[in-house]
Design a protein that fits this description.
mainly alpha; about 5% strand; two-stranded antiparallel sheet; 16 helices
Length: about 400
């Protein structure tokens, strides 16, 4: 066994040495040669080549070691029938721990806008909006296994429903809220109808095209959506016709989003353990077996798209009210990618994981503005590391198991 370990160790060293040589060769013209235009000479920076060689060798060897360790851990988990209880899951399993922690979080959430600035409250409201968007997309991607890359189209449908209803008919926020959700639901069903027979990459391409079609239509149909200029002057949500300042309106919208988050978590949690939730899970695991068990595949796919798009429409209305301005530039593919990243990073099908993922992906870039030149690089590195060493996400979704105990006489 020691000989095998020594052989693997030498192979790792050899592999890392080859990678470091390639890095040195590829970066040689950039990191070593520098032309001094003032004195018209070429400066040779050989120390940079040594730093690159040593750094790439060390990082490659460390990466290979961690990858092998992660592979062994996943094999061990599979051998134990998929039992992977992370620290967070163990905490959630202890009522004596998570109930006081939940109380502390609730108190902090309530007092947050009274101790922090309007800007901080606005950022937190945005994070809560992405929590709802992530939980909505989780119904389609995490539970049903239908890869949707055009989720931003339903988000735009809700925002433009409120903006256009106010622009033409003077309809306020609370009336536009269910109408925006209804418009997004109908759009979700309209998308689901032509893609019922598609799955995998083909479904992803069609939904991506649908999202881009929606954005281009909004950008070019000036008579309907006012084109690239967008719609401004959208009122914020009111409270019994009371006039509120900007800070008061921001705090009011913050608590409104907390209410929406609580409702969304309750509905999604009940959906997971319901008959529809089990049908969505069966559809994700094996579509043919799902249909063979008597589940109506068409109806379940329509239900998944309709439910997921409803929450996007609700948040779209809130977005229009928060920014008081909408235009097609706010609904690009990057938004769909960000929401999908929240679902994947947090853990597909895991409600606590998606909440944590939304706060990480939305709040970290804001608080890393001091590293504005490198924050997207840091963001990309974190995503790559997560997908390699913990592909199941921050918190792995734990299925509810049922056991049959035969009664002994």
């Amino acid at each position: 066994m020691s000989t095998l370990h020594a052989t693997k160790y030498l192979e790792g060293l050899k592999h890392s040495a080859v990678i470091s040589l390639w890095f040195m060769f590829l970066t040689f013209p950039i990191m070593v040669i520098r032309v001094n235009t003032i004195e018209n000479i070429i400066e040779w920076r050989w120390m940079n080549l040594i730093y690159i060689g040593c750094g790439s060798f060390f990082l490659s060897f460390l990466w290979r070691s961690l990858s092998e360790r992660g592979t062994r851990k996943r094999k061990l988990i599979d051998a134990r029938n998929g039992e992977d209880r992370s620290l967070v899951q163990r905490i959630l399993g202890e009522r004596k721990i998570y109930l006081p922690a939940l109380g502390v979080i609730a108190v902090f959430t309530v007092i947050f806008p009274f101790f922090f600035s309007t800007y901080q409250t606005s950022i937190m409201t945005t994070a809560l909006m992405y929590v709802v968007l992530g939980l909505g997309l989780n119904i389609v991607v995490g539970q049903a296994g239908l890869l949707n890359l055009g989720y931003v189209a339903f988000y735009a449908a809700g925002a433009y429903t409120y903006a256009l209803l106010y622009q033409h008919f003077g309809i306020g926020f609370w009336i536009a809220l269910p109408l925006g959700a209804l418009a997004a639901t109908l759009l979700g069903i309209l998308l689901a109808l032509p893609v019922l027979r598609l799955q995998g990459d083909y479904l992803a391409i069609v939904t991506l095209g649908f999202g881009e079609i929606t954005r281009i239509v909004l950008e070019n149909w000036n008579e309907f959506s006012f084109g690239p200029s967008g719609i401004s002057g959208i009122p914020r949500p009111g409270l019994f016709d009371m006039e509120m300042s900007l800070h008061e309106a921001t705090v009011y919208l913050y608590f409104l989003m907390i209410l929406f988050c609580i409702i969304t978590v309750f509905v999604v949690n009940r959906l997971q353990n319901s008959r529809i939730g089990r049908a969505l899970l069966a559809l994700r695991e094996d579509e043919i077996a799902c249909q063979a068990m008597g589940i109506d595949k068409t109806r379940i796919k329509l239900t998944a798209f309709a439910l997921g798009s409803t929450w996007a429409g609700l948040v779209g209305v809130v977005f229009a009210a928060k920014t008081t301005f909408v235009n097609p530039a706010s609904f690009t593919f990057l938004e769909s990618a960000m929401i999908l990243s929240i679902v994947v990073l947090g853990g597909m099908g895991s409600i606590p994981g998606i909440i944590i993922g939304a706060f990480l992906l939305i709040l970290l870039p804001e608080y890393l503005r001091a590293f504005s030149d490198y924050r997207m690089l840091i963001f990309g590195i974190i995503m790559v590391i997560m997908m390699i060493f913990r592909p199941q996400g921050i918190i792995r979704s734990v299925r509810r198991t049922y056991k049959f105990h035969r009664e002994e006489k």
